[in-house]
Amino acid sequence: MKNNNDEAMKNYFDSMLHNEKTTPAPEKSDKSEKKASTEFAELPTLPEELVFSNSSTKEQLHSQVSAEAEIQKQPSAVDEWKNIDVENEFQVLFFELNHVTFAVPLTDLGGIYHLDKELNFLMGKPVWFSGVTKHNNKLYNIVDTSLWLQLGCSAKDLKYSHYILLGSTSWGLSCEKLLGTENLSKDQVRWRDKKGSRPWLAGMVKNKMCALIHVQELIKLLNQGMDIRG
Are the CB atoms for 155 and 143 separated by under 8 Å? Predict the structure, then answer.
């Protein structure tokens, strides 16, 4: 998978990792290998039935979002940063925003869906909150990912095509291009060993010069209404 913007990505991710201690690949895990979900095997080609309808009502949106907000406000008993735990070999999904590539472990994804053109706007949300959409009677909060990451552009400038669900949560990251999946080994990643100023950054995929996203930490930031700066 060729990237024509290696220099721009190198500068972007070097600035993230600057002055933050990194560590070699974590030691081998004793866990049995997990099989990657076949839901992602055919990327970037996705079935058309994933396209949403626009049947949600404002009453449903506000009631469910308000209930979720109350749950999200509850403080966590333990707030200790730990890097992601993966097998010695694991699969990631690569996606692109404004010519910058990102990676996310497949085991941390809840699905990939076509992005509905019309989102329901909610007052009082952060600027990176694009809106809410509904699918199969469930609401999803759509993030303007480029704006959240401060890449210098937003949904007004980009053509988001899909959104990526984070685990079992209602958060979806908008993306321009799905670049497909790939197997990685632990030693192909420059891992971080402390929280630093960007807890959502698990490390950097060396040969791609792209960030590997720490999904659980990203979810925490989104729940708290925080952007890339935390």
Answer: no
Return the exposure string of 20-46: e unless at least 16 CB atoms fall within 10 Å of the residue's CB, then b.
Answer: eeeeeebeeeeeeeeebeeebeebbeb
How far apart (Å, rounded) are the C-alpha atoms in residues 88 and 187?
8
Q: pLDDT of 88-109, one tens digit each?
A: 999 999 999 999 999 999 999 9
Q: How does strand 162-166 pair with strand 177-185?
A: unpaired
User: How far is residue 195's CA from residue 150's CA, in Å, rounded to a whole number?
Assistant: 19
Q: Grade residue 68 by pLDDT with cuts at 50, 70 and 90.
A: low
Contact (Cβ atoms closer than 8 angstroms) between residue 15 and residue 79: no
Single-letter code of the amino acid located at 140: Y
- What Rg, from alpha-carbon coordinates, does the chain have? 17
Instruction: State pLDDT tens for residues 110-145.
Output: 999 999 768 988 899 999 999 999 888 889 999 999
Pair type for strands 201-205 and 109-114:
unpaired
227: helix, strand or coil: coil
Upper half-sphere CA count for residue 168 (Cβ side, 13 Å): 0
